[in-house]
Design goal:
Layout: E1 3-7, H1 14-26, E2 33-37, H2 39-42, H3 45-48, H4 54-62, H5 71-77, H6 83-94, H7 99-104, E3 108-115, E4 121-125, H8 131-140, E5 150-152, E6 155-159, H9 168-173, E7 178-182, H10 197-203, H11 208-215, H12 217-233, E8 237-240, H13 255-280
Length: about 280
């Protein structure tokens, strides 16, 4: 039996996921493979590098820095989250990412991206997290409208959540029989149509397939949730979700809100730990 972990995105709702995976790491819970989408990728990769605490530490430290994220960065670079600061200054200098530990960890790690030209999901196995593979990470978290497509390996890529927000079925196709899913919305959540589609049609006019994918994203997302609920009821999936709505914005500058979301993740995971250990046996 291969054990897999799927981590949904959700921008700064990913602080909930950070709390969940930190508790898992502290309890030496291991997986054969993990797949992250958007924030689930750029935060979840710390599972493979075995660095509990790092996600909340650097987000709490730098959430107020204009070069980290915000309107000023968007107007200057075309990206809401600063590429240089987020993907170079922090992991290479300010709060070092353990690239060596990442490479040595046998757990497979996949990131989900959306091909802007086709509107379809691509699933990239990231073995080394080197310069090129880091671009796939960045692409997975590059939200449409507020991010430029990331050009890497001949592709033009954007947020993986557009094409496949919760890639449980892909993990199952890859042979992961026991899958744990970390969601960032509560059980009763239903996704609605994107209200920013008129703006998307202007900013992404060069990518009609991407626009189409965004228009139908809510339908696919809700279908994925229904699939997950059915599998969960049958005991075929283990799902960890927040007990209530996470009160953070996509670019959250309030450290206390980030910490509250993180603590919610930790507390929720602690409540589920015994059940999770039984599921993974």
């Amino acid at each position: 039996m291969k054990k897999g972990l799927v981590m949904e995105g959700g921008a700064m709702r990913g602080m909930f996921t950070a709390g969940v995976i930190d508790v898992m790491m502290e309890h030496q819970i291991t997986f054969d493979g993990a797949m992250g989408v958007s924030a689930g990728a750029v935060f979840g990769c710390n599972y493979k590098s075995s660095q509990p605490g790092r996600v909340i530490r650097y987000n709490a430290a730098y959430c107020n820095k204009p070069q980290y994220a915000g309107l000023r960065t968007f107007l200057k670079t075309g990206d809401m989250f600063g590429e240089q600061f987020c993907y170079h200054d922090i992991p290479e200098h300010l709060d070092p990412f353990d690239y060596e530990a990442y490479r040595k960890n046998p757990m497979d790690f996949y990131v989900v991206v959306t091909d802007a030209k086709t509107g379809k999901a691509l699933y990239k196995k990231v073995d080394r997290c080197d310069k090129t593979e880091m671009e796939w990470m960045r692409a997975s978290a590059s939200m449409p409208i507020v991010s430029k497509p990331v050009c890497v390996d001949g592709y033009e890529l954007l947020d993986g959540g557009v094409a496949d927000s919760i890639p449980v079925q892909k993990m199952q196709e890859l042979g992961f029989d026991k899958t744990v899913v970390v969601l960032t919305q509560p059980r009763d959540y239903v996704k609605k149509k994107n209200q920013l589609m008129p703006l998307a049609k202007v900013s992404l006019r060069r990518y009609p397939a991407m626009i189409d994918a965004m228009e139908h994203r809510h339908e696919h997302y809700n279908e994925e949730l229904e699939y997950i609920r059915e599998k969960e009821e049958r005991g075929e999936l283990f799902v960890i979700r927040p007990p209530k709505k996470i009160e953070v914005s996509k670019v959250e500058r309030d450290r206390q809100r980030l910490l509250a979301a993180y603590r919610m993740g930790r507390e929720t995971m602690k409540e589920h730990m015994r059940s999770l250990e039984r599921f993974l046996k």
